[in-house]
Amino acid sequence: MNHFIENNFSYIKKSIPKWVKILVVSKNQDIFSIKKLYQIGHRDFGENYVQEMLKKYKKLPKDIRWHMIGRIQSNKLKHIIPFIHLIHSVQKFEHIEIINKIGLKYNRVIHCLLQIKIGEEPSKSGITNHEAIYILEKIMNMKNIKIKGLMGMSSFHENMEKIYEEFVFLQKLYNFYKKRFQFNILSMGMSRDYNIAIKCGSTMIRLGTSIFRKN
Which of 11, 67, 81, 136 could link 46 by a cystine bridge, Cβ 3.0 to 4.6 Å? Predict the structure, then answer.
């Protein structure tokens, strides 16, 4: 049997600092592929779409820590709040209010990250520093949501120096907020740029292609 998925994961895990967590992006991957990583002890998986996450949640072990990394849809939040481990892509105060309200219903404190726009492309999602401050100050008295840090996606191009600058910008924001809001997660870096992200202080890298690609 071909073990390239486990081998890819193990190689990357050994090559990065122990304090950096790997979030396996399981979008478009089948149950069998996810189980391969589960069987060697991995528990953190990220999905972009609620429907796909729900299907996998029902079929896979319940100690998996599911992460929402895709665009948030207000009407679908209620489906993942009962079990979600971390929402990476919070950008609107409206969504925070909904998360807090549903979290109260299930007696859960929902951990989230604010997605900051650091890439240049119009298609890249995220909020500005000013918008982040506005949100952080408004949620101070909310009991069922906790912002644990920041997430960002670099520009999709080959200019590694530019990508480095984008990650440094996010790192500086993270360090600025860290003490005041007790942040402990900086989610940045994907298969094409995770080594640069780690150099810039990332504590969590989101990897899909580099793990599921057959070399």
Answer: 67
